[in-house]
Each structure stands twice: as structure tokens, then as C-alpha cells.
TrEMBL record:
InterPro entries: His_Pase_superF_clade-1, His_PPase_superfam, PG/BPGM_mutase_AS, PGM_Phosphatase. The active site is at residues 16, 89. Substrate binds at residues 15-22, 65. The lineage of its organism: Bacteria, Bacillati, Actinomycetota, Actinomycetes, Kitasatosporales. GO terms for molecular function: phosphatase activity. GO terms for cellular component: cytoplasm. Pfam families: His_Phos_1. This is Histidine phosphatase family protein.
Length: 216
């Protein structure tokens, strides 16, 4: 699924700001949770840095936490935001709304199998490969519209970003866990070379922050 090489495009995959459920280590999945005041402040700080990279386009998940994060960058760049439900976080069924400890207690073997890289429908929800199959084409479709040397900002969620990066880099799905998670309002950068996409930065941001949330 790599893009044809040579155009020098760049994709910045930006995780949304902090939510109350992130702080509680409560699995959000596709539940539509808003940013905290700190999450809004994180988005504003990060947006100033990302605006300096002069993005050409912004596409975001339609969930409130991602849409509000994207809005901070849009206000600085005057770019329109395209919202796409294909960029939503992994639907995780019965896991959604549970804390990390509750998931371990109730679905310990399922959690362990997922961490081992096995294909698991967490809580009866989506496989990671299914998330990549819906999200990666959205990213590639918008990247294909960029001018040569252009930059796309994708505002999404920790799990969706990780699986999308894995797919765009051509990694086998059982290796996606090795990419690690993104902290709130941090981002990863993919650059286009002659042989496709490559990872230029991962979990970049202003200061090191713990990874809190769905994909740690």
C-alpha cells in the first residue's frame, strides 16, 4: 500500500489532546469523548508548531476529541478540515468504558493475546487489520491530492495512527505493536521516498509525556 515514489510528500499523523478518560486510563474506542481544558491547551500548543510546517491540508476523525484538536490548527492556517469517520479509533465493543485494570481483570487472556501480536477482536470489536484497512486508504487518498513536496496533517487516535503507520510502512501486522503508542497531542511524520513511505519522526512533541489511553 505504499505510494508511488518520488513526489516528496509528507504526512503528519497527530493524536488528539487529553480527555478525562485518558486520565482515568479508560478505553475510549469509538466512544465520543470531549477534550479536557488541558487537552485544548495541548492542542493549541502543538498547533503552533505544526502550523510552522505550513501544511497544505487537514483531515480528521469526526469524533469530538480529534475534531476539536484539528480545529486549533485550522484556526492558525485558515485551512478547511475534512472529517472522515474512517479515521475513528478502534471499535472495541465490551472494552469501551472500562479502565485498564478492569480490562485485565475481565479479559486478561484476550489482552495478553493482543499484546503478543495475535489477531484479536478486543471486546468483540474490530481487528487491528480492519482498522488499517479503513484508515490507511483515507490517508493515502488525501496524500495523493497534495502538491509535490506537500504536507498533510491527519488528526486521529493512538490505535488508528499506529495501525495506519504499520500498514503504510509495509510492516506485518504482528510487528505493529513495536511502534509504541503516541502521547496526547504528539505526532509522527512519514516522508515519501523513492521506495515509498518511511518513518521520519515518532511520538514527537514539545515535551516527553506519558502515553495515556487506548493504545499503550
Amino acid at each position: 500500500m505504499n505510494a508511488s515514489g518520488g513526489r516528496g510528500r509528507r504526512v503528519i499523523l497527530w493524536r488528539h489532546g487529553q480527555t478525562a478518560w485518558n486520565l482515568e486510563r479508560r478505553f475510549q474506542g469509538s466512544t465520543d469523548i470531549e477534550l479536557t481544558d488541558e487537552g485544548v491547551a495541548q492542542a493549541r500548543r502543538a498547533a503552533r508548531l505544526l502550523a510552522s510546517l505550513k501544511p497544505d491540508a487537514i483531515v480528521a476523525s469526526d469524533l469530538k476529541r480529534a475534531a476539536a484538536t484539528a480545529a486549533e490548527l485550522a484556526s492558525l492556517t485558515a485551512l478547511d478540515i475534512t472529517h472522515d469517520e474512517g479515521l475513528r479509533e478502534t471499535y472495541a465493543g465490551h472494552w469501551q468504558g472500562l479502565t485498564h485494570d478492569e480490562i485485565i481483570a475481565q479479559y486478561g487472556e484476550q489482552y495478553a493475546a493482543w499484546k503478543r501480536g495475535e489477531p484479536v477482536r478486543r471486546g468483540g470489536g474490530e481487528l487491528e487489520t480492519e482498522v488499517a484497512e479503513r484508515a490507511a486508504p483515507v490517508v493515502l487518498g488525501h496524500a495523493d491530492k497534495l502538491p509535490d513536496g506537500g504536507t498533510l496533517v491527519v488528526v486521529s487516535h493512538g490505535g488508528t495512527i499506529r495501525t495506519t503507520i504499520g500498514r503504510l510502512l509495509g510492516l506485518e501486522s504482528h510487528h505493529w505493536e513495536s511502534l509504541g503508542g503516541l502521547s496526547n497531542c504528539c505526532w509522527s511524520v512519514l516522508g515519501e521516498g523513492a521506495r515509498g513511505w518511511r518513518l521520519l519522526e515518532h511520538n514527537a512533541g514539545t515535551l516527553p509525556e506519558p502515553v495515556l489511553g487506548d493504545d499503550d
